[in-house]
């Protein structure tokens, strides 16, 4: 009938109208870890400038549990309308190997928006732990491997991955104590209930500078400006032990291109914000360059990291039960 538009034309017109209108209400950023942890900190730092750019409030929702997979699953199953997003770290690339019954596919079930930052790790201990240097720490944990306790924030958390690589690097299995989040692990480390851990600078810098924990090394190629007295792992005796915990922003697969483009543009504004850069620097990291805050950069890194971590996790037998 001449009075009716073809279905394809109607779809194109509706998508165009959506792109012009979006966003018309608050947007939720799901953080798949507990409040106060490193990923939560990164998320809140970029949420404010992104919200200003988009003209809407961004609400940060913490959905912790199962190494970040509960929150990721929630977003994967959310309506693909641009109003529910996921900010996740390197765990997106390790989840397929750690969780045999994973309820989502990191590649197929998400639309990447862009990278946000890559955070160095720090090897730290309770302040009265006997070793004074990383070299002494390695010798000590080897000698007392059945007594020393390594804390982590649960399977799939950055601290778990760092600990797994550390044990592989020194060829020693240690007693691990998993927690439900980074906050409780740090609390017990400061309180002396556990001996040492490895976690992101966004969660450890304040405690290091405040003298609440002892720092042995950072996992970055160079020393950090805010922790100039902490040597790199290469300087301290582990030249091949480097690890950065990258963070990316995702939408559910099927989210309209118009929404993704607006979100991507807002992310670029956020990572270029001087206030964000300054706050990140205080925490020992930096936002990515604008050309990395893109879907292509995040998709490429995610694919590469899935392939990198699978043989390591399989060899370690580190599967969630």
Automatic annotation (TrEMBL):
<dbReference type="InterPro" id="IPR005064">
    <property type="entry name" value="BUG"/>
</dbReference>
<keyword id="KW-0732">Signal</keyword>
<keyword id="KW-0675">Receptor</keyword>
<feature type="signal peptide">
    <location>
        <begin position="1"/>
        <end position="19"/>
    </location>
</feature>
<dbReference type="InterPro" id="IPR042100">
    <property type="entry name" value="Bug_dom1"/>
</dbReference>
<protein>
    <submittedName>
        <fullName>Tripartite-type tricarboxylate transporter receptor subunit TctC</fullName>
    </submittedName>
</protein>
<comment type="similarity">
    <text>Belongs to the UPF0065 (bug) family.</text>
</comment>
<dbReference type="Pfam" id="PF03401">
    <property type="entry name" value="TctC"/>
</dbReference>
């Amino acid at each position: 009938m001449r009075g009716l538009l073809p279905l394809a034309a109607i779809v194109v017109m509706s998508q165009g109208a959506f792109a012009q209108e979006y966003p018309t209400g608050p947007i939720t950023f799901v953080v798949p870890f507990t409040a106060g942890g490193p990923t939560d900190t990164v998320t809140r730092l970029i949420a404010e400038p992104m919200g200003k750019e988009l003209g809407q409030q961004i609400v940060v929702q913490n959905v912790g549990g199962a190494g970040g997979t509960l929150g990721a699953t929630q977003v994967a199953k959310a309506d693909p309308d641009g109003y529910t997003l996921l900010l996740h770290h390197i765990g997106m690339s390790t989840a397929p190997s750690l969780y045999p019954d994973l309820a989502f596919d990191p590649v197929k079930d998400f639309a990447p928006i862009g990278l946000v930052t890559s955070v160095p790790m720090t090897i730290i201990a309770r302040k009265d732990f006997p070793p004074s240097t990383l070299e002494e720490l390695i010798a000590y944990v080897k000698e007392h491997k059945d007594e020393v306790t390594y804390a982590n924030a649960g399977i799939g958390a950055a601290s778990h991955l760092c600990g797994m690589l550390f044990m592989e690097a020194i060829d020693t299995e240690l007693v691990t104590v998993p927690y439900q989040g980074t906050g409780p692990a740090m609390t017990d480390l400061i309180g002396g209930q556990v001996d040492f851990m490895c976690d992101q600078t966004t969660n450890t810098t304040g405690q290091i500078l405040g003298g609440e924990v002892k720092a042995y090394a950072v996992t970055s190629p160079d020393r950090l400006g805010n922790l100039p007295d902490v040597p790199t792992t290469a300087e301290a005796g582990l030249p091949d032990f480097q690890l950065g915990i990258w963070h990316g922003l995702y939408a559910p697969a099927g989210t309209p291109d118009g929404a993704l483009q607006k979100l991507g543009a807002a992310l670029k504004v956020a990572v270029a914000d001087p206030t964000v850069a300054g706050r990140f620097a205080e925490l020992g990291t930096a936002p990515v360059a604008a050309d990395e805050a893109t879907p292509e950069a995040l998709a490429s890194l995610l694919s590469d990291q899935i392939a990198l971590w699978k043989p390591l996790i399989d060899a370690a037998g580190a599967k969630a039960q």
